[in-house]
Amino acid sequence: MRVAIAGSNGLAYSIADAITTNTYHQIIILSRAPKPHLTAKGWQVVVVDYDEAHRQELAFKLAGIGTVISLISGPSQINLIDAAAQAGVRRFAPAEFEGPAALRPQPDALDRGKRTALERLRYYQSRGMQYTSFVCGILYERFAPGGMYASRIGLRSGIGAEGDYLMNITQKRAQIPLQANGQPANISMTSAADVGRFVAAAISLPQWPPELRMCGDRMNVSRLVQIAETVQGAAFEKNRYNTQSMQSAYQLARSSGAIQEQLRAITLIATAAGRFDFPTPNLNSMVNVTPTRFQAWLQAAWQNR
To answer: What is the sign of the dihedral through the CA atoms of 78, 136, 199 and 295?
Structure first.
């Protein structure tokens, strides 16, 4: 099968690498600009324009593609979905890669066009195009040296630097969001490399359900911080946040126009509400992938630092 991956940074790279390493599927990378470093790997890079005015051209470039995996968002993704349907693409995976859609509030400040994309895919599903949302929870790379940005993941998120989510390991500081019952929130997590391996394996499944959930590890935030303290050999400064204090932090950031602080507060609130927690990762039992546990990953990531 020919697989098109829309995007070339971070997570898209991990998925492309896993497909070429672990399967016989052929890939093409859809990119807004040439990518010589990917071409040098022997990967086919197709330069595309996602604007609505170029949908016919985009559909032409998708001819013969069986599966599209999207790592782009907003109107560009909607145009990609429409072009894929026009080209007869059989399967489409939108840019999800977080918690289950059912756990998101409405309206959702972190949506970035995801709800509209799923609505469009449900429409095309009734016309024969399968889709699935790959759910991976929080990426381990949020807790890497330099955060997700160091792996070129979430470059447009505004909150991908080290310390933007839960822990700043370099500075040994942590935030612990509390659920309504006063207990630390739970999160499900997966490494970017394992997301790539899960997605690569899922391409060969005979049917795609609307959601495929993968998980490398699941724990409460207090345990997460304990693991980081063990790896660093030092205690962290820990601040606990209940619903009221998180809402207050958001309102303060909003009143001052601090966009990044708003995003940090919203993501903390979402974590406390369980947005990134799912106890039943169905894809884990459907494919032969053994993910890396968080402590082993963190130990390797921070070795010699």
So the answer is: positive
